[in-house]
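Action item from last meeting closed. Structure (168 res):
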C-alpha cells in the first residue's frame, strides 16, 4: 500500500496493484460502550469468587491438626501429602508418618492402623469444611443483585475466613 499527501492536505492511498483505496472523510475512533452496572457487578463477582477459591486452596494445602496420637499434631496437606496419607490409611497397617509436635518439630512418628485412619478422617473433615466455607461464600457473592443497595461494595465486603476446628 502506498500513502501520499496531496498539496491540498488530503491523503490518498493506493493498493499494491495501483487501484485507489477509498476511505470516508470523517473517520471517528470506535469508543466501546461503558460497562453497565450489571457488567461491573459481574466482573466484581468473578474477581471475588477467584479470590475465595485461591484462599480456599491455600488453606487446604496449609496443613491440619489431629489428636489421633493422644496429643495434637500438625500434618502437612500439600497434594502429595494428601495422597500419601490416603495410601497409609488405606493400607490398614501400622506405619510411621511425619507430623509436627507442639514445638513445630516434624518427625516420623509411629501410628497404628486405627490412628492413621483417624488422621486421614481428620484431614478429610478439615478439607470438606474449607470447601463448604468456599461454597457458602460463593453463594453469598452470587446472590448479590444489581438492584441491591451498593452491590459492588457488598461483593467487596465478603471476605474469606477459614472455619474453626470446632466447626470442621
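Sequence:
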Amino acid at each position: 500500500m502506498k500513502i501520499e499527501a496531496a498539496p491540498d492536505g488530503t491523503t490518498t492511498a493506493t493498493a499494491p496493484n495501483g487501484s485507489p483505496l477509498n476511505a470516508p472523510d470523517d473517520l471517528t475512533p470506535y469508543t466501546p460502550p461503558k460497562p453497565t452496572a450489571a457488567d461491573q457487578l459481574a466482573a466484581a463477582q468473578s474477581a471475588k469468587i477467584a479470590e475465595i477459591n485461591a484462599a480456599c486452596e491455600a488453606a487446604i494445602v496449609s496443613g491440619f491438626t489431629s489428636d489421633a496420637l493422644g496429643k495434637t499434631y500438625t500434618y502437612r496437606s500439600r497434594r502429595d501429602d494428601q495422597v500419601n496419607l490416603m495410601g497409609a490409611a488405606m493400607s490398614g497397617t501400622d506405619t510411621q508418618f511425619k507430623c509436627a509436635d507442639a514445638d513445630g518439630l516434624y518427625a516420623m512418628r509411629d501410628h497404628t492402623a486405627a490412628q492413621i485412619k483417624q488422621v486421614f478422617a481428620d484431614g478429610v473433615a478439615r478439607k470438606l469444611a474449607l470447601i463448604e466455607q468456599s461454597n457458602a461464600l460463593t453463594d453469598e457473592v452470587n446472590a448479590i443483585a444489581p438492584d441491591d443497595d451498593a452491590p459492588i461494595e457488598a461483593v467487596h465486603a465478603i471476605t474469606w475466613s477459614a472455619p474453626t476446628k470446632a466447626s470442621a
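Note appended to the action item: Residues 113-142 form the longest helix (30 residues).
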